[in-house]
């Protein structure tokens, strides 16, 4: 193309461009002109698709979360029933129980009530202690109190008494393994921690002592009290203390529910990867997340609501995973 054909095109473009850069206050920016007509539709076209896309994304996330609710409920109650069954296996093995069940068994010996009923009654007492500690129970918290003790008593009624180490040792190992997997199963459902775990995190926040110190103090107290009342302490108690962290982490990995923001899986990470976790860490993270979520909602309205719920679900799982530290 020749120079003569380019110059007529470039000449008028300069002034129009300059007027546009000045903010459109000149004649060319008035409605009805070619420049004003071109600018308006472009703004509308850019804004409309973005709003529609964000709304669709938020609705899609919420829809995905709703579809996963039945799975989470099934996982919660399957985990709690399996937990009660695994505890019954440890009772039948007679080689030592997990710390809290040492106390439950001791109280059962003292009162004549079944160990499952004592588990439920003590769970109610511990849950009441949440009130001054300002802990908030979830569906999983209340279900933990009601289901585990019942499942334990039913399992003990069905399981026969056993004798001989050749049977008792495998029962103990099966009880510890299933208990760890059951813990990961119901924690990953993200319906809230158990009452005893909430007591631990509440005391941590109230006293300022580390989670490790609070947990150790509580479990030493309940094991000693249970032992004095006639509860079973033995090799099973030690094996449980050493193995429960890694086994629960495995359970979390196996049973993690995909989040609603794109199907990512919640798996054990951070401290939990090392076989430990820190209850209370997640509460702090959850509070920070709620603050961030509020800012996002104010900024974008309903756009991020579903994603924020999914993120809070992730924080809840991490909080619950933190329970496993020994």
Automatic annotation (TrEMBL):
<keyword id="KW-1133">Transmembrane helix</keyword>
<feature type="transmembrane region" description="Helical">
    <location>
        <begin position="110"/>
        <end position="131"/>
    </location>
</feature>
<feature type="transmembrane region" description="Helical">
    <location>
        <begin position="165"/>
        <end position="189"/>
    </location>
</feature>
<feature type="region of interest" description="Disordered">
    <location>
        <begin position="263"/>
        <end position="311"/>
    </location>
</feature>
<keyword id="KW-0812">Transmembrane</keyword>
<protein>
    <submittedName>
        <fullName>Integral membrane protein</fullName>
    </submittedName>
</protein>
<feature type="transmembrane region" description="Helical">
    <location>
        <begin position="138"/>
        <end position="159"/>
    </location>
</feature>
<feature type="compositionally biased region" description="Basic and acidic residues">
    <location>
        <begin position="281"/>
        <end position="302"/>
    </location>
</feature>
<dbReference type="InterPro" id="IPR038750">
    <property type="entry name" value="YczE/YyaS-like"/>
</dbReference>
<keyword id="KW-0472">Membrane</keyword>
<feature type="region of interest" description="Disordered">
    <location>
        <begin position="1"/>
        <end position="64"/>
    </location>
</feature>
<dbReference type="Pfam" id="PF19700">
    <property type="entry name" value="DUF6198"/>
</dbReference>
<feature type="transmembrane region" description="Helical">
    <location>
        <begin position="220"/>
        <end position="243"/>
    </location>
</feature>
<feature type="compositionally biased region" description="Low complexity">
    <location>
        <begin position="27"/>
        <end position="64"/>
    </location>
</feature>
<feature type="transmembrane region" description="Helical">
    <location>
        <begin position="76"/>
        <end position="95"/>
    </location>
</feature>
